[in-house]
Amino acid sequence: MEFLDQSLVNAGDGENPEPAFVDYLRALYARRPIDLIVAMGAPAADFIQRHRQQLFPTTPMVFTAVEQRRVQSEKLTENDTVVAVAHDFPAAFDNILRVLPLTQTIAVVNGASPNEKFWLKEMRRELAPLTRRIELRWYDELSFEDILLEAARLPPHSAIFWHLMNVDAAGVSHEANDALNKLSSSANAPVFSYDGSFFGEAIVGGPMHSVQQLSQSTADVAVRILNGEKPGDIKTPPSPFAAPIFDWRQLQRWGISDSNLPAGSTLYFRELTGWERYSWQIALTAAVILAQAGFISALLHANRRRQFAEMQSRERLTELARVVRFSTAGELTASIAHEINQPLGAILANAETAEAILQSSNPDIAELNDIVKDILQDDRRASEVIRRMRSLLAKAPFELKRLDLNDLVGDTVGLLSALAVARKCELFTVTAAEALPILGDRIQLQQVILNLIVNGIDAMQDTTRENRIISIRTSRLEDFAELSVSDLGPGIPEEKLKEIFEPFFTSKAGGMGMGLSIARTIIEAHHGLILARNRDHGGASFRIKLPLVG
C-alpha cells in the first residue's frame, strides 16, 4: 500500500495560489487513480469540497481532524464520510479555573486567518458567560512578536489559552509547534490548550482531543471503505474531549498541586521517586538489613546467654576451686600447725628469758635488744604463714591484676615448705632473673601452682628414691612467662597423658579427680596453656605458659 501526502501549506505562495495548485493536483493524479482520500483539518476539508468535482468526483473521501461545525454537510456526497471532533470551549476554560482556582485573567492566543477568525467568533460567543467571573484578553489583533511581549507581562493569577496561530495579525505565517514553544518560554503564566497534538511540549494539559483516538477512528473508517463499504453509509459521531491528561513537568514549573487536578486525570512525564525507580532493590536491601539485624540480634542474645553461662560457670568453678583449696588446706594442717608452733615456741622462750633478765639486778640491755628482735622476727614468720593461708582460703570474685610470676611462685613455695619437710621432699626453686609480669587472679593461679606441687609430693610418697625433689622453675620464652613443676615420681602412664586434665580423672586412691581439670580451666581463662609430659629419666613434668604484659 502506498501513501501520498499533499499539504496546503505548499500552495501558500502568491496572491491566489489555489488555481495553480488545483491544476497541479489534477495533472499529478490524472493517470494515477486514488483509492481513498483523507482530508485532515478544516482548511483541507473546505478546499477539497470546493474543488471535488474538478479533482476527485467519485473517489471515496474521509474528512477527519475537523470540528463538526466546519464541515459543509450540504456539499457531502455519497462518497464522503466524516470523522469529526466536537470542541467544548467552556469545558476547557472550566479546567483552567479548576486547576488554578485563583485565576483572574485568561489570555486567548488566536490567529487572523479565515478559519481562525471563525473560531474567534465561536469562542467569544461560548465564553461570554465567563466574563462575569474573569477577564478575557484576546490577542487576535496583535502580531506574534507583540503577543510574546504581552504574555511576558501578564498580571499575577493569569493563564494562557492557546487556540491557533497559523497567521498572525501582521500576516506572518507560523509553524504551530515552534510558535507555541516560543510563547511558553517567554510567558509568565501557564499555557493550556484543547489540542492533544501539542501535549508533551509546552502546555499544562486538561481535557483535550486525543490524537491517538481520532487516528484510530479514522483508520477504522478507512479500512471499512477499502473493504468495500460505501462512505455515505458510515456515520461516526463527533469525538468529544478525552479524559484529562497533564504534564508533570509543567505542574512543577508553575507550582500546581496534584490535588487540583480533575478526577480521573492521568499524569505524564512524572519523574519517578527513588522508591518507584529502585523499589525492588530497596526492598531487597531492606530485607537484607532486616535479616542482618535479626541475625545480629540473635547473636547478641546468644552472646548474652553465653556470657551469663560463662559467668555462672566461672562462679561454679570458683566455688569448686575453693573446695579443692580447703581440701588441700586439710592436708597442710599438720605442717602449718608445726610451722606456726615453731615461731610461737621461740617467742615464748625468748619472752621467758627476757623476763628473767629483767628480774636480775643488772639486766643486760644488749641481750634484751637481741631477744626483742628475735621475738619480732618469729612473730612476722607466724603472721606470714597465717597470711598465706588466709590468702589461699579467701573467698573472692575472679579478678585480673598485674602480678609477678616469680613472686607468686615464691609465696606458694613458702606455704608448702613445711609440708615438703614433713613428707621428706625438697622444693628446689629456680626463678628467672628478670620479673615476669602477667595479668591474672592471684588466688586461682596460686591454687594451680599449689596443686601441681602437692601432686608431685604425693607422687613420690610410694617411691624408694632417696632424693625426692620437686623442681620449680620460671623463665621467659618470647612473649610468654613459663612455669614448670617436675617431680621424680613414677610418671604418668602414656595412655593416660591425654586424659589427665579431664574431670574426675585421678590416679590417687582417694582423689576427686578435679584438681588438674580445674587447673586447666583456670589457665585457659588466663589465655594460657598447660601441658603434661613424662621426663626422660623418670617422673612427670607440668609446664604452664601465660602471656606477658607490658
Polypeptide structure, described:
The protein has 550 residues and is of the alpha/beta class. The protein is built from 15 helices and 17 strands. The chain has a five-stranded mixed beta sheet with strand order 12-14-15-17-16. It has a four-stranded parallel beta sheet with strand order 5-4-6-7, with helices on both faces. The protein is rod-shaped and about 165 Å long. The two termini are 96 Å apart. Mean pLDDT is 85; it is low at 10-14.
Q: Count of helical segments?
A: 15
Radius of gyration: 57 Å
- Overall, the morphology is rod-shaped
| Number of strand segments | 17
Largest sheet: 5 strands, mixed
Major sheet strand order: 12-14-15-17-16
Fraction in beta strands? 15-25%
Measured between the Cα atoms of the first and last residue, the distance is 96 Å
Write down the overall mean pLDDT: 85
Class computed from helices, strands and strand pairing: alpha/beta
The percentage helix is: 40-55%
Indicate the low-confidence ranges by residue numbers.
10-14
What's the arrangement of secondary structure elements?
Layout: H1 18-28, E1 37-40, H2 42-50, H3 52-55, E2 61-67, E3 80-85, H4 89-99, E4 105-110, H5 114-126, E5 135-138, H6 144-152, E6 158-164, H7 176-186, E7 191-193, E8 205-206, H8 211-226, E9 245-247, H9 248-254, E10 266-268, H10 274-277, H11 279-359, H12 365-393, E11 401-404, H13 405-422, E12 426-430, E13 437-440, H14 442-459, E14 469-477, E15 480-486, H15 515-525, E16 529-534, E17 540-547
Parallel strand pairs: 1-2, 2-3, 4-5, 4-6, 6-7, 9-10, 12-14
Antiparallel strand pairs: 8-9, 11-13, 14-15, 15-17, 16-17
Helix pairs in contact: 6-7, 11-12, 11-13, 11-14, 13-14, 14-15
